[in-house]
């Protein structure tokens, strides 16, 4: 599989089978992903992988706290503006339409949102953390590391869903993985085999055409 194919295949899968993923496969993906670009070679990522009983115990604890905890960063800027606000709104509408949940059915939407806390049924939950003293450039490095993880998962016949949802549970995650106090949780990720029969996995988010956000200057035709 080439890079273009992997990028096209990768989606945020929101329904997984319970087929387990061997520890050796997870470790191989995480190790290979460390070839991600890293300014000054700081390698700011710190990763935890949960499966089996530890994952089940963690999900049970979170289920008892549906309101979440004080967040350590805003996933989106306050008072989001256009075009970002419209893109986010349309994305949500399309997602819920894919599983026939109307806008007025708030309870059903909340139930779907709560599936984040189950890692959408995936057998592996990943957490990506970094030192609190690091800055935006190192957050970007961590994002590139996560992208490598997602593309390598595709190569291995697996699927993922990155979840900034877990920024809502920084204390619970820290306790579950033994995160040092000087580190913080950035994101989680579900990892496993997608359920090919679930309607939500047939939906793909849209992207604006390149001429909306890119200018090419100085090139010959």
Rounded to an integer in angstroms, the radius of gyration calculated over CA atoms is 18 Å
Unreliable stretches (pLDDT < 50, length at least 5) are: none
Proportion in β-strands: 5-15%
Structural class: alpha+beta
pLDDT averaged residue by residue: 95
Q: How many β-strand runs?
A: 4
Report how far apart the termini are.
Answer: 31 Å
CATH hierarchy class name of the domain at 3-70 and 120-198: Alpha Beta
Question: SSE order in H/E notation?
Answer: HHEHHHEHEHEH
Q: What is the global morphology?
A: globular
CATH superfamily of the domain at 3-70 and 120-198: NADH Oxidase
Across the major sheet, the strand order is: 1-2-4-3
Biggest sheet: strands, sense, closure?
4 strands, antiparallel
Helix content: 25-40%
Question: Which architecture of the domain at 3-70 and 120-198 would the CATH scheme give at its second level?
Answer: 3-Layer(aba) Sandwich
What's the helix count? 8
What's the CATH topology name of the domain at 3-70 and 120-198?
NADH Oxidase
Q: What oligomeric state do the depicted chains represent?
A: single chain
């Amino acid at each position: 599989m080439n890079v273009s194919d992997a990028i096209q295949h990768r989606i945020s899968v929101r329904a997984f089978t319970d087929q387990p993923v061997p520890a050796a496969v997870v470790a191989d993906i995480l190790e290979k992903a460390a070839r991600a670009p890293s300014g000054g070679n700081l390698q700011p990522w710190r990763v935890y992988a949960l499966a089996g009983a530890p994952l089940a115990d963690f999900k049970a604890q979170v289920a008892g706290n549906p309101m979440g905890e004080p967040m350590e960063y805003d996933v989106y800027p306050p008072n989001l503006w256009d075009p970002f606000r419209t893109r986010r709104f349309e994305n949500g509408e399309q997602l819920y339409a894919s599983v026939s949940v109307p806008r007025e059915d708030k309870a059903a939407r909340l139930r779907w949102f709560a599936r984040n806390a189950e890692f959408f049924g995936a057998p592996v939950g990943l957490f990506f953390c970094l030192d609190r003293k690091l800055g935006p450039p190192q957050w970007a490095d961590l994002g590139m590391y996560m992208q490598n993880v997602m593309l390598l998962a595709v190569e291995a016949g697996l699927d993922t869903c990155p979840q900034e949802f877990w920024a809502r549970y920084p204390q619970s995650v820290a306790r579950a993985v033994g995160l040092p106090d000087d580190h913080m949780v950035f994101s989680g990720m579900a990892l496993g085999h997608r359920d090919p029969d679930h309607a939500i996995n047939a939906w793909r988010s849209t992207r604006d055409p390149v001429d909306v956000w890119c200018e090419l200057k100085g090139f010959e035709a």
